[in-house]
């Protein structure tokens, strides 16, 4: 009997553990091209791995590898061939993304290859083991062997956005061929797009004080292993010419490996970059580094999970895949780019122009579109991944002096002015700033139909910073100046604008007059937009240190139509631009309205009956209809839209989604899906933890998510019953309200 109960306990323990483990992605055949690739990464590295014509390929991308035009360049393409080839003609072929351990394997019974990124060092390892001795050939393939003049379409990949007058050139890389290793790097010139934008935006006198992360930046790496150089060749891949440098095994063996060590630094001297690269190489210990990286991934997956059965099972699986891709930039210097991240592949495989290189993406790699970028990071709070949010927080912290300088130089105001389309050097994207500006036009304002006065995107990051304290007790002292300065700008700018326009700097009720302003990119030249009002109220209430300013924020504008009260985008506006529904931003991310909050019926009326909202209903890109539905307790709409957001994309890897207005993979597809599923499962309102506020009764699910107050909630709903509930700390269990 003792043995029976022991075995039963072990079985139950194993079954419970399986709930928390992500399911591997397994392919049983090779791919046609890079569109059939699988993501792999860690730290700040992303790879696209695939097997084609018996060769193993991967693209390699690293956060922060921006050239002088602000294109995020790939480090290169790598091709590996084994002879005799254990992958050739095998029906028992397997390519697997091992999510729990964070690596990709290619295997058959006669051989295997493991590819993994070191989470704590900028290094990629490739390990091969075969039953019979095998020779390995490793080719480094580069399409940047000569300077390249960008086409207009190609210019969309950089800060010039394809609209800059004159010629834009991607300069060539440097390749240093050694007998036993290959060194490759891109060296930015001292003159960069930053200098051109400074001149465009009238800040030449301040150039010395402005941040330039591109000047003299050198990035690249070195391939090393028990290899010797064997020659070069030229070829074409997916419409792009390349040159390859090939190294082969010194002698055939059963076990072989090589590594690619990366390094980036701003220096005018190449030898300084090489010294930094060699320093990293000396710090490596493959076995220990592998163990540490696997341990990090194992612990990562234990922080939270969502496992579902039946109708929601595929959505829950894809939830893991989007979370994995975000975690590959856990320690990046720069926030993840939502359109493509570190995992773009050849444009020609997506039906695009064959002349575009693997470096291409639409939307400018160095352009930080505030609202879209925030969608990558909101899901991290409930996933317990607050450490992954630091690249976003640190980015804004670095750009703060430039945002403050803009406000001071242009208007003589204190505070920090961040544009919705801010470049990673802190100035406005040149196309959004306006290339054909009228003479005498306010130099601080964007001259663009969708970008003008859209300044409140930074407040999403400010609110995330404040939430990180509640979720994970993060020390945010270094980000307080960002919050203070971002809030101060709105107070000082709009009071100053009102004072110049009339007798008082406030309205007749003692409130700010937010005009001219913008309700997202949609309602332009707006008066008191609801999205900006909600943003300021939300951040000020969470911050708690500026009660006088909070008292000056006007009320959210409402309107009653056909007997139903609704949220207005603004009190009035002059025109409309891009399709959007900023009148629902007070629901999320600002949580002014929602389940258990005042005004729920007003917000539901807006979602269900507002004509503009209905017209813009969508489940693609950065649209948040599924999230708003979940926050409002609209179970039917939330479940339908969230399943669509987390459905399989058109490519072999199911989380590689494609939309018309973004680049592939469109990470915001999955980010919105993750947020929708989180809000369906768990919400916190006024100290109460709402369990299943928008979850269908018939869907079985087991989840573990985080809540404010350093709280975790693990619950299992099965057979329309709550069969498990674990709340940590236990005293918060009394705050749980089961909405089913």
UniProtKB/TrEMBL annotation:
Domain of life according to the entry: Bacteria
One GO biological process term: carbohydrate metabolic process
InterPro entries to which the protein is assigned, alphabetical: 6-hairpin_glycosidase_sf (IPR008928), 6hp_glycosidase-like_sf (IPR012341), DUF5703_N (IPR043757), Glyco_hydro_b (IPR013780)
Lineage, uppermost ranks: Bacteria, Pseudomonadati, Bacteroidota, Bacteroidia, Bacteroidales
Stored Gene3D superfamilies: 1.50.10.10, Golgi alpha-mannosidase II
Signal peptide, first to last residue: 1-20
A Pfam family annotated for this UniProt entry: DUF5703_N
Protein name in UniProt: DUF5703 domain-containing protein
